[in-house]
Amino acid sequence: MEPIARRRVLAGLAATPLSSLIPGLPFTSGPASAAGRAVAPTPDVHLTWLEGQPGAAATSTWGTPWPKGAVPGDQTFQLAGPDGSAVPMQTWPLAYWPDGTLKWSGHAIAPSSPADGYTLTAGTSTAPAVPVSVTKHPKYVEVDTGVIKARIPRGGRELISHLWRGDVLTARQGVLVSLRQDRIEEDEERPARRDRSESTIRSVVVEQSGPVRAVVRIEGKHGSWLPFTVRLVFFAGAESIRLMHTFIYDRDGSKDYIAGLGVRFKVAMRDAAYDRHVRFVGDGHGLLSEAVQGITGLRRDPGAVVRAAQIAGTKLPDPSTWDQRVTTRLQYIPQWGDYTLTQLSANGFALRKRTKQGYGWISVDQGNHASGLAYVGGVTGGFAVGLKDFWQRHPAQLDIRRAHTEEAEVTVWLWSPEAGAMDMRFYHDGMGQDTYPKQLEGLNITYEDYEPGFGTPYGIARTNELTLWALAATPTADRLGAMADQVRTPPQLINPVGHLVATRVFGGLFAPVDRSHPDKAVIEDHLDFLFDFYRKQVDQRHWYGFWDHGDIMHTFDEDRLVWRYDVGGYAWDNSELSPDLWLWYAFLRSGRADIYRFAEAMTRHTGEADVYHLGKWAGLGTRHGVQHWADSAKQQRISTAVYRRIYYYLTADERTGDLLSELVDSDTTFLALDPIRKIRTEPYTPDRHALSIGLGTDWSGLAAAWLTEWERKGPKADLAKSKLLGTMETIGAMPNGFVTGSGLYDLDTGRFAPVTAKTVSVSHLSAMFGQVEICAEVIDLVDMPAFEAAWLQYCRLFNATAAEQTAECGAAFGNLILRQGHARLTAYAAVRLASEALATRAWRDFYTGDGYAATLPWKSERVTSTLTPTDAAKWVSTNTTALYGLAAIQNLALVGDKIKTF
After folding, report:
1. Which of 608, 729, 745, 726 has the alpha carbon at shortest distance from 671?
2. 20 to 30 Å CA-CA from 146: which of 275, 431, 626, 740?
3. In what residue span(s) does the PcRGLX/YetA-like N-terminal RIFT barrel domain sit (predicted)?
4. What is the C-alpha to C-alpha distance for residues 676 and 763, in angstroms, rounded to an integer?
């Protein structure tokens, strides 16, 4: 390929739109401006439910994107059902295009009988008949949905002091409970001492106040440790509250062990013992349906009508109508006040009960996957609670205590006290790796980058989602089943694929699934195989657990026929080479619910457990390893906002928004830690005016955070914009642009120091952690030809010949790998430069690179020699899967009409 001079590049960018030069390519020739262009009318968006129409009243919060320049920043919207009837909705802005037009809007609907879809249009929203209201008092905040009312103290220990349904008090004293253990028992040692503490509230902030949706954020600690953020989300007309609980682990793992972590409420019990009910939903809609005092199965029969009423959970007839041989002996029928359901593993739960404290437990039953839903109350009302991902996040537990008294107690244990203490200790003693040379030798054998003191969980986090109900009566079996379904899979409204593609969000690097060409159909089959294989592996290999749920493994062991769960850096993936993006782009182009839920779980995990939120490494993530926090490489490439922002914009989820905001100042982490400290050949001391920052995995992570803060108009939006544009400008001014490899960054100016010499320093990893995607976005947003030329140079040359690299940059890039993953860079350059030759080469790179070949078996085989039977595909690795998936998706979107096999 003839070297392309920068002048030719810039001329190409200003030329005729590429879509007219290469038919079918989705990009225009460069970043468009709203100026001088007619603003198109706001398009109608036809929304559907992710898993299909819910079977019961449902709420949903979601985000919808809009084309650049099409929708005014202050646009209001309305929602209509299939028959055109207005649906109450709340709207708020999530992000803006640089020209001030709306890029993403957030929306929420209140519970109602759901339609199978809705139409979102410009207009004025209809208010709910009874809006949710928020009343602020000096000592508390009160939220009223029109059905239930919650009082939220501004201090003290209670998240919710009182929860009413109408004028009836349902529950009170809602607190967080933690159990702290002073040591981990070893083998047959005596049990360790445990101390219990409750929440301490530091602040209460109303984030939204209706009319459809209200959000209250509560911050504090679990006593004197474990900082938390709880969000209470209310909807107009709802009888439930969504509770999002996030805690940060603020210990180093060597002491103060979590032995229990839960949410606890006291529940008013007003009815006779035989009119009080306990419900647990187990597998599917399987149900434990019992009364505190059962009158079925007795030696004497109270009567069929009486028995039927108790089974149904309705009020029993007056005892005077019963067979008096029962009513005169009611005092001899046990009252079962305590129930406990434990889910200590992914495939096993157990339920037991007892009459009261101090007396023996009776086994009730066991099963596989409990739903995480429990109810206690009576015919005049009760309290239900559900924990999402209950069995997937084991060990979890549901407790009901003293249901036979005037006030029961319900505890949802996020970490079960019966599971033993949460063991966060590092898994080996260092094996003598006390110097950098020794640590590099360790890296060369186990692929683990070890360093003393770095394998700490201090600062990682976890978020759990609960739903609380204040109910007017004991729910029917069908109602409980529907509630359990919504706990397992909260209803989610989504945008049509065509609209997501048309708005060109997330870089415009995806197009709808297309099987119209036989070669495309083969690639689609391969993409389906890879996702389905990993989905099954999660279940077959039991990739579940409190800290593990959402992650996948890195590399397979062909000899043991298991994933290398215990081999250094080959174990948990921790976002290595962007499986997060593969999954999200796969969803964006398909709308598949199973892909969405897989990606959602990964985003919840990788944004919390793989990233530090406190301490000197706050804002950095941890490289792949045996434990999610074990590896000593703490880097931007794992914490990068590009892995979280898709989920945030699709759901308007506030917690994910917090994660994005945390990263805005993460450039300061380079003062605390040099990412390449072990391999530097020259002396280097971090200097705030001359920080060595890589132009690949480092800069792309920073750029993603700055872009997101800028477009969200966050509190540091101006600073973020300045740093993004400043670094883009100074990268574009470097003689070799991104090929330079790194630059000296000034924290105060937000710019790289000038570079005069042509330097070549290229890594196969640089662009593989979201840089492709973030560069596509910023180039589409910002008219900066020099920066685009620098990126296109990198895209053109990475997979080019050594001679071509030398001719343009002064030296060859070296023996690079991941050529298949970089095929999408070639495709991007093909579109921006209207190059047929590059389009052809993009497919050659894809088919002949060092990734998955078309000649592979593209199937798995059954393995029965492992601990449990599983499917295995020895040729599959997560690095290659993620890069194949992204290269396939983006090549098909960019140069799909030029597809050619090699």
Report:
1. 745
2. 275
3. 45-122
4. 13
The whole-angstrom separation of Cα 255 and Cα 677 is 29
Neighbouring-strand partners of residue 92: 106
CB contact at 8 A, 773 and 765 = no
Closest CA relative to residue 549, chosen from 655, 395, 412, 657? 395
Q: Please name the helix (run of DSSP H) or strand (run of DSSP E) that holds residue 103, with its range, or none.
A: strand 102-112
Query: Residue 691: beta bridge partners?
Result: 745
Whether the bond into 138 is cis, omega within 30 of 0: no
How deeply is 726 buried, as exposed, middle or buried, from its count of CB atoms within 10 A (0-12, 13-18, 19+)? Answer: middle
Give CA–CA dist 511/500, Å, rounded.
Answer: 9
Would you say residue 83 has pLDDT above 90?
A: yes
- pLDDT at 40 (0 to 100): 60
Percent pLDDT > 70 in the chain is 96
Q: Is the pLDDT of residue 137 over 80?
A: yes
Give one word for 653, left, alpha or beta, with left for phi > 0 and alpha for psi -120 to 50: beta
DSSP 3-state of 155: coil
Has residue 17 got a pLDDT over 50? no
CA pair distance 233, 208, nearest whole angstrom? 9
CB 423 within 8 A of CB 184: yes
- Kindly give, in sequence order, each residue whose CB lies less than 8 Å from that of residue 707, ignoring residues fewer than 6 positions away: 641, 720, 724, 774, 777, 778, 781
Number of neighbours of residue 429 by Cβ within 10 angstroms: 8
Residue 322 DSSP one-character state: S
Instruction: Note whether 899 and 521 are within 8 A (CB).
Output: no
Record the tokens describing residue 549, joined without a space. Answer: 């749920």
Q: What is the DSSP letter of 130?
A: S
Task: Give the 3-state secondary structure of residue 383.
Answer: strand
C-alpha 152/C-alpha 624 separation (Å) is: 41
Q: Which tens digits make up the pLDDT trace of 323-358? A: 999 999 999 999 999 999 999 999 999 999 999 999
Shortest CA distance to 846 belongs to which of 426, 385, 460, 522?
A: 522
Q: pLDDT per residue over 268-281, tens digit each?
A: 999 999 999 999 99
Which residues are registered as beta bridge partners of 343? 349, 396
83 CB-near residues (< 8 Å, 6+ apart):
none
Cβ atoms 819, 66 nearer than 8 A? no
Query: Do 246 and 465 meet the contact criterion of CB atoms below 8 Å apart?
Result: no
d(CA 263, CA 385): 10
Q: Exposed, middle or buried by CB within 10 Å (0-12, 13-18, 19+), for 327? A: middle
Which residue, 837, 852, 847, 850, is CA-closest to 891?
A: 847
Longest dimension (CA), the chain: 102
Residue 48 corresponds to which tokens in the numbers above? 């559907």
* Rounded-to-integer distance, Cα 13 and Cα 753, Å: 27
φ, ψ of residue 654 in degrees (nearest 5) = -65, -40
Strand order in the sheet with 117-122: 86-87, 77-80, 117-122, 45-49, 493-494
**Please, which residues have CB within 8 angstroms of residue 486's CB and are 6 or more apart in sequence?**
54, 56, 58, 386, 467
Long-range contacts of 1-9 (CB under 8 A, 24+ apart): 1/796, 1/800, 1/801, 1/804, 1/837, 1/838, 1/841, 3/804, 3/807, 3/808, 4/793, 4/796, 4/808, 4/833, 6/789, 6/793, 9/788, 9/789, 9/792, 9/793, 9/833
Kindly tell me the burial class for residue 320, based on how many C-beta atoms sit within 10 Å of its own C-beta (0-12, 13-18, 19 or more): exposed
Neighbours of 353 (CB within 10 A): 21
Contact assessment for residue 104 and residue 66, using Cβ atoms and an 8 Å cutoff:
yes
Q: What is the DSSP letter of 318?
A: P
Residue type, 68: K
Is residue 66 classed as helix, strand or coil in its secondary structure?
coil
Which has the closest alpha carbon to 494: 63, 39, 31?
Answer: 63
Distances in Å between the Cα of 238 and the Cα atoms of 58, 231, 293 are: 9, 16, 31
Q: Which domains are present in the chain?
A: 45-122 (2.60.40), 131-293+334-490 (2.70.98), 497-898 (1.50.10)
Q: Comparing C-alpha atoms, which of 779, 775, 718 is closest to residue 750?
A: 718
Q: How far apart are CA 707 and CA 233, in angstroms?
A: 28
